[in-house]
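Record passed on underneath.
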Amino acid sequence: MSNISLDSIDVVKKDKPRLKRPPWIRVRAPSGENYDFLKGLMRSKSLHTVCEEARCPNIGECWGSGTATFLIMGDICTRSCAFCDIKTGRPLPLDWEEPKRVAQAVKAMNLNHVVITSVNRDERKDGGAPIFAGCIEEIRKIQPGCSIEVLIPDFKGSIEALKIVMDARPEILNHNVETVPSLFKKVQPQDKYQWAMDTLENAKKLDPEVLTKSGIMLGLGEEWDELLQVMQDLADRKVDILTLGQYLTPNSQRHLPIERYYSPEEFAELKEIGLAMGFKWVESGPLVRSSYHADKQVRALSKIYSPRSGS
């Protein structure tokens, strides 16, 4: 992912002119010794990162500082969300040794916080939840003191699958709602708004001590009032952390175009509104992504930080 240019990321639709990129959207091409080390490490252990697969604009900053978000259960998703650049299709069988390799990479990187996410595995009733649990357990074994955030699918609303993950006791349980209800069928046609809300609400019921987190993309065509209502719905379910970032179209004709760019001032206003709603932490900005500053969040929100044991 070298020589990143948002001119190449924005898609030109034949029936709609491309919006001009505002001056506050700037992405540096990833480089540096640590970036090269992490890229080599991921390939040597046959691991994937959402940083690469989703073309995250912060990959240079995060990899340069020694942090990354692991993408488990392969790089082929069973869903076809119109904003995502991860491949859609029939995935390979689960690799039950993957949790050990993830833990080994975390150890090699000497991380004190790790984020683990996955593709959707709708072909399985449990959605691959045991692999999430296995990653948490293996990291606890060989990198004690490392806090763990899991960014999970909705598991089609299955509380049984969610419980498998929650029983492993991550510090942060993250599930992104992504957009407003009126755009769900357009943006993520196989998802349901209620599944997202149930996932976050049930996580708190299963473990009241867990920090819950969700994120919303801006610029897909949502109305301001709709956006505020989703934020309120999340606050009503006692979600602790909210991330708000600008949607940027991946380099593919199948992805949705950007309907508008939000200004830095609007992001700042949304942060203040979110904090007033009761969120403990709001990360809001044009290039904010779900895992941005995740390590700071878990430490700031723990009065006396102590990673959880599996017991």
